[in-house]
Design goal:
With 247 residues, the protein is of the alpha/beta class. The protein contains ten helices and eleven strands. The structure holds S-adenosylmethionine. S-adenosylmethionine (SAM) binds next to α2 and β3.
Length: 247
Amino acid sequence: MLIAQLKQRLLGKTASKQQGDFASETAYDIWAGSYDAQPDNLMLALDEEVFSVLLKQINMEGSSVADIGCGTGRHWPEILKHKPCNLTGFDVSAKMLAELKTKFPEADVVKIDGYRPLQLGEKVYDVLLSTLTVAHIANMERSVKSWTNSLKGKSSILITDFHPEALARGGKRTFEHDGHSISIINYVHTISKLLKLFGEQGFALEALEERFVDEQVKHYYEKKNALPVYHKFKNQPMIYGMLLTRK
Ligand SMILES: C[S@@+](CC[C@H](N)C(=O)[O-])C[C@H]1O[C@@H](n2cnc3c(N)ncnc32)[C@H](O)[C@@H]1O
């Protein structure tokens, strides 16, 4: 993609709210039992790719790591391979955390209230991870301050999420439950806005990854009889990941 086009995409849009049907806590409590069993979920597949590329760029051995919106701990086997000295998961959904606990009974997890400023506690971290969660957070201004306050001077932040451009075009995070499609409230936080907020706290972008809806992923839509959705989003970014560091 041309630099000018990329710049326009990153800088050209303002944040706006998109109303879904369910608040995160309620929706993920419902989704928790089946969340890990989604072999044909394109978002999860693209997220795994982006997460893995970015995670390799962090030296996590002996680090203290926080995972915000850890959910069922889908990424924990990979994170633990990097030998952090401790790993704490934070989430608004008690049921997602309960699923995590069945897989990692010793895990250190904290149930948080999504409507209050996030308190990461007394502990300070070297690395903060957050996958597929940022767009569920209404107030990123407040969250960025709270996240970065809990990080040591020299530290890293790895974020992946549903791309704000896909959300701005009407993309929704949905799942099937009892024959109903349930969608979850999302907020559009543009990449440029996030970079500005983290930049104000001394964090600079090390790497940015984006994955697009293209021929390579068409089979996901075919399998779900969703070719009209494929054509609506074709050539549009679907997932992004960013790695930020403070030196
Ligand atoms: C799509 S899931 C991602 C879970 C996990 N990170 C993954 O990649 O599989 C989003 C998670 O964010 C959590 N969540 C939603 N709003 C949140 C908030 N304000 N603070 C922390 N977690 C939140 C949800 O409960 C859910 O577990």
